[in-house]
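Section 3.1: Structural characterization of target chains.
Under the original work plan, the team committed to producing a structural model for every single-chain target entering the pipeline before any wet-lab resources were allocated. The record below documents one such target. The sequence was received from the expression subgroup and is listed exactly as submitted; it comprises 255 residues.
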Amino acid sequence: MHLISRALVITAMITLLGCNSTGGGTRPVSNVALDSKAAEINMRLGLNYLQRGSYAVALEKLERALTQNPNLPSAHNTIALLYQRLKQSDKAEYHFKKAIALQADYSEAHNNYGVFLCQNKQYQAAEQEFLSAITNPLYTGMAQAYENAGLCVNRIPDQTLAETYFRKALQLNPNLSKSLLQLASLRLLDIEYEQARSYIQRYKKVAAWTPQSLLIAIKVEDHLHDENAEASYITLLRGLFPDSDEALQVIRGDY
């Protein structure tokens, strides 16, 4: 089960928003005096290189941004994401905390730090960061933060609380595919097969099939004794993902 997020192209892991200040002219690199506009430009360049996977150049730009303005929250947030990608957890955590200390209502940093904590199995601490992100009424990523909270507490596992967060996420954005799929899975566990089917129907309208989602769909139709629908999903699974663990599981009849 993976947390999802948007920018940064870190495989559905991290939401990166808030880097929306405008930049101005630059000064010579040798000038280390406070230069907020140049720092903003270098932060944006660092983010761009980070998204492209050019980590060495991204690090250079972000370090320069922090030299030009050590108090720029977005630069700390972005370099934290870079260190997270480089698996330098201590540095990542330092910069996430610094970004939040500099701007308490920096929702993107709270959300990103929550993802980091959840990946490191600090589930309850992560939940608090997601909730901190949501307290900002201007945060445009509330739905994603709720979904991240649901995905994280589901690892505790606290399925009741996870369902609450998934439902809140869908109230804000009815097309969040992971929330739809997780609710289908939870309804399946609770033997509420018709509701599980309804979530699968909504899911397939907004997202591409994955081996995991098809297996859930197969299980739902199996319990509902709809052999045609079950066979259709099995055909899709074996056709689209023939080498997946889920396809092998279905071939063995182990579902």
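The radius of gyration is 21 Å.
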